[in-house]
Structures are given as structure tokens and as C-alpha cells.
């Protein structure tokens, strides 16, 4: 008689994808691959990842995102995508803020001067000499003139910044000459590095340049394509999960707290993205705590306003509401529920109609013959 005790088969609360499910290449049949599940296993291992380091969780998400968009060549997955607000743009924001403050100060000064004029008319009723009143008014007039001079200098600086930026934009549209391929250093830029970004790129094939020229080198370096549109479809911020030894209730609380922490960073990423991409209407944001993740479609018109002078939201309560959206429901990577949500995210991209589909006119003379016509997205 066998000494083995039969073990009751208990169905797992989560259904995992299997390699057989990946036979179809259709977007609506996306399933997590073995690579995703292998990466999850390695990240959760107490032997291979005893410290539960965040970086060890990244491959599971990287494989998931790559698999998700593998049939869409215009979608590019990038790790630590450099999202930034250029220094001149930030300077313009600061100058605009100074301009508004100076205009407000000027109005206050003019109201004070007007009040002094009224006091001067009835000065026989006030215990103050005419000489003192004139002194106060003279100082205020000097402040007013100084404010007007400052306003003029601010407007001039804003105009110069806008002209310089327009000149750079014009040069970038000229093609691939050596003059447009200079690297630009921007120490004043405000840099962000989301853990993963899925970018939408539109490109056109360039005509073959003359051999042994600068244009040939640059054309080869860019794969023979010229990018004429870029936007971000999805941003993600990943964190490690709570400690493994916690009780279930403490662990669940920890997941929520960590996802909110990731959402806090995502709020600033989204704010920066909308600031430098005024035509962007929305972006998908993913917050993760290890294998637990949540997502929100972030609409620009409903997103909290940001004060880039203070580098903080204008209304903190709006950011709190934003973070709560991520904690309503979260999923476990590589489960069927998770795969379904990733398919839903991809459908948001497919349904979008707010992208340029035509190659810019300035670029057409530089293209290969079969790419000269407008293309479909």
C-alpha cells in the first residue's frame, strides 16, 4: 500500500497564459509568453532576488510590452525613456510668471497713487504734511517706472526665446544635412526617466544619398528613415512589491501604498508630457508594485494643472484623486485578467484618430519615390 497521501486538487484563483495560446498573431489574442513568466519567477525567487530589487522585475514588464506591440512596427518600447522639459521652455514659463506678477504689482501701485491723490485733495483734514505726501507719491512713481522697464525686458526675452526655438524647428525640418544633426546640450532642462515608455513613431524612407558624403553617414545612422512624428502612447513606473513575509492584510495594504507611490511619479511624468506636447490629448499610465499593476487612461483636459516654477501641482487634492484611480483595481502580470487588460490598452491605441497621417511637405523632396505619397497610419 502506498504511503503517499492524495492531495486535493485546488483550482488556482489565477489562470495563467500558456505558450499554446500564442499561436495567433491577432492583437485580440495576445497572451503572456513563457519569457514573461520566467522573468516573474526569477524576480520573485528568494534565492535569485533575495532583496526583491526593482530592476529585477523590469524584464517581465519589458517582455510584456514588447510582445503586446510586436505587430505594430510604429510602436517602440523604450526603457528609461528621456522625457524632459527644455531649458528655454522653462525659462519662458518663469518669465511669464514674472510678467504676470509685475503687471499685478503695477496695478497695485497705480491704485495706491490714485488713493494718494485723493488724500492730497483732502490733506487739510489729515495730519500729514504735503511734503510727506509728495515724497510717497514720488517713490511710487519710481517703482511704477521700474516695473514698466522690467515688463519691457521680460517681453523682449520671451520674444527672443520664441524666435530661437522657431529657428531650431525650421532647421530640423530641412532633412539630414550635417548642419541639422548637431547634438544640443541643455543643462537647464528638467529631466524625467519613466521606467518604460511605448512611443508612437511615424517615419518615411529617405532617397539614397550620394556615396561618401555626410548625408550618407547620417542616413545610414538613422536606418534610412526620417522620423516626422513622435508621441508617447504609454508611460509606466515600476516599484518592487511589499516584503514577502507580511501577513495577507499587511501585504495587500503595502501593494496599494506602493502603487500610489508609483502613481505620484506618473503624475509628474504626465504633467511634463502634456506641457511639451500641447496637441496630446491623452496617455496611458501604468503603475506597478512588483507583479501587481494598474493602469489609467489619463485625459489631458481632466489632468491636474502643474506649476513648473515651484515644480509642484497647483492643487494637491487633484493629484490625490489621480492616485486613487490606480487603486480601484489591480492585476497580476501574466494572468488571463492581466492579458485582457493589456489587450484593452492596445485597443486604445488602435482606436486613436488624432495623429498626423501625411508626410510633411518639406520632407517630400528628400524621400524615396515610393514614399513620396501620403501614407496611412
TrEMBL record:
<keyword id="KW-0175">Coiled coil</keyword>
<protein>
    <submittedName>
        <fullName>Uncharacterized protein</fullName>
    </submittedName>
</protein>
<feature type="coiled-coil region">
    <location>
        <begin position="92"/>
        <end position="146"/>
    </location>
</feature>
